[in-house]
Amino acid sequence: MDLINRCASTLDAAAVAARATAQFSTTGIALTLDQAYAVQAALVGRRVERGGRIVGVKMGFTSRAKAIQMGVHDQIWGRLTADMEVADGGDLSFGHFVHPRVEPEIAFRLKAPLSGIVTPEQALAAVDGVTAALEIIDSRYRDFKFSLADVVADNASSAAFVVGPWQEPGGDLRALDMVMSINGQPRQMGSSAAILGDPLLSLVAASRLAGDAGITLQPGWIVLAGAATAAEALAPGDHVTLEAQELGRVEFQMTAEGSAE
Ligand code: OOG
Ligand code: MG
Q1: What average pLDDT score do residues 185-202 get?
Q2: Where are the alpha helices (DSSP H) in 161-247?
Q3: pLDDT tens digits, one per residue of 40-82
């Protein structure tokens, strides 16, 4: 098996077993960024072969808070599949994850294809819904540590996501208060401004990166704009809510199912 498929197999097995694996970069496998995206494509390709379906993309490291938390400063993207989506208010099982964390985000839903260099106005014209979202990230690497190439290969740590009720696009998204609470306690408070100054610019960046990768973001796809604050670690039984001013509220429950406790 070639290097790309070997790395994809390692990450796929780690995700399926919910067991961490060693970072490639610290075990003598120095992937280039192009190779890392090829691993990501092969990894998600395996899930698609098992019946998954691509439903969108996620952006990573579009806020300083996240770049600082993880020590990775370049914007990255990953693929979302249908099996990763949890209904608003729905349940996830702790036992399916290695060391899950949750992030407050904003999501866009597309009604028209998008790829390459576009203006914010052109990006907005391709959107038919915007909402508050929670992303559950779960690095398949031990201790949640990775290089840029490692995290790109690991589908940008993405594990699951929840979107709130879709709202009409067109409102100003530049300064929405965002409060993420766990079990009723506010744990991260921020502003949508943390996402590149305007979450719409994250959609512009997603279009550019998709174009670079020879991909077109499709009508119906969801684009997660990236976290507005640092991520919070999750424990079995946690109930998570995000309130994003004007966009509303989104929530899920991390049940203790499959956890050691
Ligand atoms: C990588 C994913 C970053 C975001 O919203 O910035 C990300 C990670 O932190 O493990 O999803
Ligand atoms: Mg995220």
Answers
A1: 98
A2: 199-212
A3: 999 999 999 998 899 999 999 999 999 999 998 899 999 999 9
Q: Which residues of 40-50 are buried (b: 16+ CB within 10 A; e: fewer)?
A: bbbbbbbbeee
Distance separating alpha carbons of residues 78 and 58, to the nearest angstrom: 5
Closest residue CA from atom 11 of ligand 1: 60
Continuous H helices in 131-182: 148-153
Q: Token pair for residue 130?
A: 């915007």
Q: Mapping DSSP to helix (H, G, I), strand (E, B) and coil, where does residue 173 land?
A: coil
Nearest Cα to Cα of residue 88 among 256, 243, 194, 245:
243
**Cα 128 to Cα 117: distance, rounded to the nearest angstrom:** 20
184 C-alpha to ligand 1 centroid (Å) = 24
pLDDT in tens, 202-222: 999 999 999 999 999 999 999
Q: Is 135 in the pocket of ligand 1 (CB under 6 A)?
A: yes
The whole-angstrom separation of Cα 241 and Cα 184 is 8
Q: How far is CA 41 from CA 4, 64, 80, 155, 254, in A?
A: 9, 27, 11, 8, 28
